Amino acid sequence: MALAALTLHTACLLAEVLRGALQAIPPGQMMAARALGMRPATAYASVIWPQARRIAAPAALGVFVGAVKDTSLVSIIGVFDVLGAAKAVVAGTEWRPYHVEVYLAVALLYFAASLALSKVARRMEARAA
After folding, report:
1. Distance of CA 56 to CAs 2, 21, 96, 98, 99, Å?
2. pLDDT tens digits for range 69-122
3. Are the C-beta atoms of 79 and 61 separated by less than 8 Å?
4. 3-class SS letters over the chain
5. pTM over 0.70, yes/no
6. What is the percentage of the chain residues whose pLDDT exceeds 70?
C-alpha cells in the first residue's frame, strides 16, 4: 500500500510538472504548426512536446529526488529500503561495532544520488536557458 501511495503521489507531482510545462508553451506555437499544415497530433509530437519536455526536465528531476528521499519515510511503516537494510545489518552482532560507518555509508548513498540528480537538473536548466 505504501508503494502504491508513493507511486501515485509521485505520478501526481509529475503530472503537475508536465501541465505547467505545457501551459508555458505560447499558444502561437500550435497556431504556427497548424498554419504550416500539421495535424494536431503531429504538431504536438514535433513542436509542443519537445519544448515542454525541455521546460519540465529540471522540475521532474526535482520530483525524482524527492521520491528517492520519500522512500526512507516509507521505512517507518515497514517497507524495505536502504535505511531499513542498514538497520537490519546493524542488528547483526558482527556489524554492531560499525553502526556509525553503516549509517554514514547510507547517508553518503542518499547524498550521492541526490547530488547527481540535482547536477543533471542544473545542467538541463542551463542548457534550456
Report:
1. 26, 5, 44, 42, 40
2. 787 776 666 555 677 788 888 888 788 888 898 889 888 988 888 888 888 888
3. no
4. CHHHHHHHHHHHHHHHHHHHHHHHCCHHHHHHHHHCCCCHHHHHHHHHHHHHHHHHHHHHHHHHHHHHHHHHHHHHHCCCCHHHHHHHHHHCCCCHHHHHHHHHHHHHHHHHHHHHHHHHHHHHHHHHC
5. no
6. 91
What is the C-alpha separation between 64 and 60, in angstroms, rounded? 6
Mean residue pLDDT of the chain comes to 86
Question: Within 10 A of 92 (CB to CB), how many other CB atoms are there?
Answer: 8
Q: Which three cell numbers stand for residue 105?
A: 555509508
Determine contact, residues 123/54, Cβ cutoff 8 Å. no
